[in-house]
Amino acid sequence: MNKSELVDAMADAADISKSSASRALDALTDSIAATLKNGESVSIIGFGTFSVKERAARTGRNPQTGETIQIAASKNPSFKAGKALKDAIQ
């Protein structure tokens, strides 16, 4: 399912226009991104938790040359599914 299909499904389920569903989806994703950028997590009970995981700096190896390289520390978004979501897909 891509974004436009999700917007269509939201519009049908909520009985709203597609433009309203699109704005609601954009607001949701923007709010989650802004909260994660501030280092906080977003918990939606029954669905899951969005959080930021920090990855430490490490040494790696260039597969073409075999040369060791330094890989910088980074922050990555993470999602942990809630119990209701896990139960819904089984």
TrEMBL record:
GO molecular function: DNA binding; identical protein binding; structural constituent of chromatin
InterPro entries to which the protein is assigned, alphabetical: Hist_DNA-bd (IPR000119), Histone-like_DNA-bd_CS (IPR020816), IHF-like_DNA-bd_dom_sf (IPR010992)
Gene Ontology cellular component list: cytosol; DnaA-HU complex; HU-DNA complex
Pfam families hit by this protein: Bac_DNA_binding
SUPFAM superfamilies assigned to the protein according to its UniProt record, in alphabetical order: IHF-like DNA-binding proteins
Coiled coil: none
Superkingdom classification of source: Bacteria
PROSITE patterns registered for this protein in UniProt: HISTONE_LIKE (PS00045)
Keyword set includes Aminoacyl-tRNA synthetase: no
Record keyword DNA-binding present: yes
A GO biological-process term: DNA replication initiation
Alphabetized UniProt keyword annotations: DNA condensation, DNA-binding
Family assignment from sequence similarity: Belongs to the bacterial histone-like protein family.
PANTHER family noted in UniProt: DNA-BINDING PROTEIN HU (PTHR33175), DNA-BINDING PROTEIN HU-BETA (PTHR33175:SF3)
Physiological role: Histone-like DNA-binding protein which is capable of wrapping DNA to stabilize it, and thus to prevent its denaturation under extreme environmental conditions.
Name under which the protein is recorded: DNA-binding protein HU
Organism in which the protein naturally occurs: Halochromatium glycolicum
